[in-house]
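Page 47, continued from p. 46.
Same chain as before, 280 aa.
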Amino acid sequence: MKLNDPNFPTSTINPTLTDKALGVIGGLVKLMTFQQIKNLIGITVENVLNSTNTVNALSAAQGKMLNDALAQKLDISSYNEHYKGTFTNDADLKTEHSTANLGNFALVDAGTGDNAHVYIWDAQEGWVQGGQTSLLNTDALAEGGTNKYFTNARVKSAFVREDATFAATALASNASSTNMVNIAARYQLLHITTSHPCRVRLYASVAQRDADLTRPIGTYPTGNHGLLFEFISTSELLSADLSPLVDGFSNSVAIPYSVTNLSGVTQTITVTLNHVKTGA
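Result:
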């Protein structure tokens, strides 16, 4: 009777494997071919020397691919050589590694309650602190001395009214003096005060100021004149609120100006410009 005969006796109870039963099974298996055994137990047998199957067995082709990939993998010493260890203080780090190479780094951690600090090797400065590993946002970053954070108070203070004052010393009557006054590259004039009757002019550039220096009072400038503000004070009107407000600009914070003495005698003419900075 064959094993696949429908009349082959079966049982729901596991039989006891006696020596005689094992002998019968052994005899049957001995008479079966390898293919018959494979089909009976339901496994897939691969010829690993020729197979490219990636499911049932590791083929020779797969083995070669794995070997090639491993050959490209860095040895552990290659990517750990830059890490120089963890130290409780920077003095210990510098003692153990008095010299290092670019790319080397280490950690300095004093223990509980202290954040670990990353130290990197600088070719010129040696070991320098690179930052804290627990720094998550700018709330934990100390402010520098030059590039400061924007705050509400600082934004408001940037638009406060300020005075910029300049003077032309011992200026003869009807003579003009030219110079620069530091205000801002963008500004808005609010008020002007003069010590004596004079003519005050502000320009966008030095070249435009100098080209307009001899223009008489009452004559309008022409072309690309660059005149941003002109005020003529009298003994009855030495200062004034400006309406409309005057918006000015220049290529730098230094604003070119000219002042002409209209008092009739040699005077030191002092001018104060009340303004708000509107841009850099």
